[in-house]
């Protein structure tokens, strides 16, 4: 069913209906690759592809993407055959069938995305898009500043070379240190294996960011719905 373009934009959280009209008149909105300047243009939110300033907007009303803070001790599945705590129990109030975007190992806490948009889920986990994730780890021992250059240059693990995109030493103490690592690879337990390889086993690990989405003020077990420009940026990163 077709609706006025400005109404679809407003429903997607882009702007108010009036401001959406201004964006259209300024030539900043395209539908299926064509600039639209005519107010009252009707579009189908289920099939038409709409961009504002080159950024896609989520128009399908049934699509939803969620940022969940996974507590430690929870497995990254929607259902666990062994009866362990899973992601599903934290989104029981949602009517949609949600899929987890990648995984966090059972002992790691922090940000994980859930979505019912299969294409978005697939692209966010596909290695060709090199989506970055940022972790904060408390590790054993006193980390020196030189370790960052070592990890950014790369080390060799049993399953091949590995490196971080960015390394920040947050705190260094004789018994343990706090480090922040950003990387785009998705190999199993990669942060833990890398830090163990350089002599600083991980004691605690938290993912604080996935692509442009930040955990922010979410507490373990809490979630929030991603929308507006935040979702548009996420979609743009995987060419949707």
From TrEMBL:
Catalytic reactions on record: a uridine in RNA = a pseudouridine in RNA
One of the record's GO cellular component terms: cytosol
Enzyme category, top tier: isomerase
Domain RNA-binding S4, chain residue ranges per copy: 3-65
EC assignment: 5.4.99.-
GO biological process entries: enzyme-directed rRNA pseudouridine synthesis
Superkingdom of this protein's organism: Bacteria
GO molecular function, one term: RNA binding
Keywords: Isomerase, RNA-binding
Gene3D superfamilies given in the database record: Pseudouridine synthase, RNA-binding S4 domain
Keyword Signal: no
NCBIfam families named in the record: pseudouridine synthase
Family: Belongs to the pseudouridine synthase RsuA family.
Protein name: Pseudouridine synthase
Protein's organism: Actinobaculum massiliense ACS-171-V-Col2
